[in-house]
Write a structure and sequence with these properties.
Layout: H1 4-21, E1 26-34, E2 37-45, E3 48-57, H2 71-86, E4 94-103, E5 109-118
Parallel strand pairs: 3-4
Antiparallel strand pairs: 1-2, 2-3, 4-5
Length: 120
């Protein structure tokens, strides 16, 4: 059983995956677990792997969704992406993107994609 917060987070991840797929990305994995943490989405496009952190919010009371990707979170994302890449035999380009999903009180959804948002 999951909490309403977890369900809302999963909803945001699905919205982000659909958004990216509509723009030519291919979904490879959802909630990819590594020894350094979880990656929300693993996508591919044009021969590159894209690790995606999804942040979903109903309110901007505490700032925009992307504002919660702190330096500590960025370090975990980099470590998780590097761990995954070390486990793969093929060399390929990769990056870490952030998707901010904001569901406004009216129900309208606003999605902002930050490409190559996190780098080591």
């Amino acid at each position: 059983m999951s909490t309403p917060r977890q369900q809302f987070g999963r909803w945001g991840e699905q919205a982000a995956a659909s958004y990216l797929q509509a723009r030519g990305y291919t979904l490879l994995a959802h909630n990819l677990r590594t020894p350094h943490g979880e990656i929300d989405l693993l996508m591919s496009k044009d021969g590159s792997l894209i690790f995606v952190e999804v942040k979903t919010r109903r309110s901007t009371q505490f700032g925009p969704p992307e504002g919660s990707v702190t330096r500590t979170k960025q370090a975990h994302l980099i470590a998780a992406a590097e761990a995954h890449m070390q486990s793969q035999p093929a060399e390929t380009d990769w990056r870490i993107d952030v998707i901010a999903v904001y569901r406004q009180p009216s129900g309208e959804i606003e999605i902002t994609h930050f490409e190559n948002a996190v780098s080591g």
